[in-house]
């Protein structure tokens, strides 16, 4: 759930979304909705859809005094959640309106139309504990409670919440995945490939978040932010499909702390990482190169020259999670059918390092590096050399392998911690993931290191939940610590 202060700054698309929400929920007629939409002060969004708003309008309480902002709030029933969300909306309204209008207005007033809230205000100290002062009854016989800009109390007498701006990039091909469409194209949700789904979904406690989408078919050469955030979180994770958005992001320069500088994202490309991250006696960085073949002979000729005829991995440049990945052992029967070869399509060729352990199994370990500190995420044991999240369903239900993974999470081998430090010193990213393996002779083999990896997953095992929570907590501390 995301809340945005938008008073006097609504786009036409946002106005249409608000009007559609009100009318479809049956709370306002179309005419009433059109008349009221310019009063919207805060949008409540879920997956890009408008699910609630607060509105304000000026009115007097006492003749001869400055007017008040009378505030109303509506959230769809399925999205109402806890009182905490309503508190955050009130705090955001108070902070932003006070900053802009404290000279012209007294504060915020509420006329309690909500029956439950009105009863609470009459029988308990619910409203006064939150910083409201009782004014009296309105002409409709409803209780009016106020909070003044010059004497904040309760939930309003708090440090200003951290303002976090999340950056989502639009891929170079300008394509989007439609994940929600109400049929009227007034409310819909889009996902853009090449952005970190974890950073996109994770909400930092105690912060107000806004999202800026950059890129597209037409875009300004420079971005001028109207409001200066406290922290910017770059969610672009794939440099292969985000050359435009990463370049544009480089133009944002406000002296604002940045999580994952855009120029550092380029260093995570598989071929660049292979060329620039130093190998050592203990750390193995497989050779990786980029190729734009016209036919399979181009691939095999390059493989002989670079890998000496040994096994290698082949995959499209734009792929994650093993999509399109094949292993070539026999050059004579290499299965390249289905891979376009026109001198334009790009592929990665990677030296295959056999990481099979002495028990005949393969193991992949994942770390998340947050502000230079490694957080172990999982250790998956598999019968296959290609290990992904789906591999967990094979062997990881066995008690012995669960114990092995738990031991790894509690006390990772020092050589792996040293390897994480080695990669961090090179990339210098604030947040990223590492997939690797540990051979029987104690060498660490890198699979990949980038920001696209996800730390969250649905697991029943308590030790995995704890590992997830450690990553979430560390990332929240990173954002708050950069302000």
Alpha-carbon distance between the termini?
22 Å
Which structural class matches the secondary elements? alpha+beta
Overall mean confidence score, pLDDT: 89
Radius of gyration, whole Å: 27 Å
Please work out how many helical segments DSSP would assign: 14
Widest sheet: strand ordering: 1-2-3-4-5-7-6
Main sheet, how many strands, which sense, barrel?
A: 7 strands, mixed
How many individual β-strands? 22
What gross morphology would you assign? elongated
Helix content: 25-40%
Uncertain parts: none
Strand content: 25-35%
Mind explaining what this structure looks like?
The protein has helices spanning about 10-25, 30-35, 85-100, 115-125, 125-130, 195-200, 245-250, 260-265, 270-275, 295-305, 390-395, 400-410, 415-425, 460-480; strands spanning about 1-5, 40-45, 50-60, 70-75, 105-110, 135, 145-150, 160-170, 175-180, 190, 205-215, 230-235, 260, 285, 290, 310-315, 325-330, 345-350, 360-370, 375-380, 430-440, 445-450. It is elongated. β6 (about 135) and β7 form a beta hairpin. The chain is α+β, with helices and mostly antiparallel strands. The strands form five sheets. Strands 1-2-3-4-5-7-6 form a seven-stranded mixed β-sheet. The chain has a five-stranded mixed β-sheet with strand order 14-22-21-19-20, with helices on both faces. The mean pLDDT is about 90.
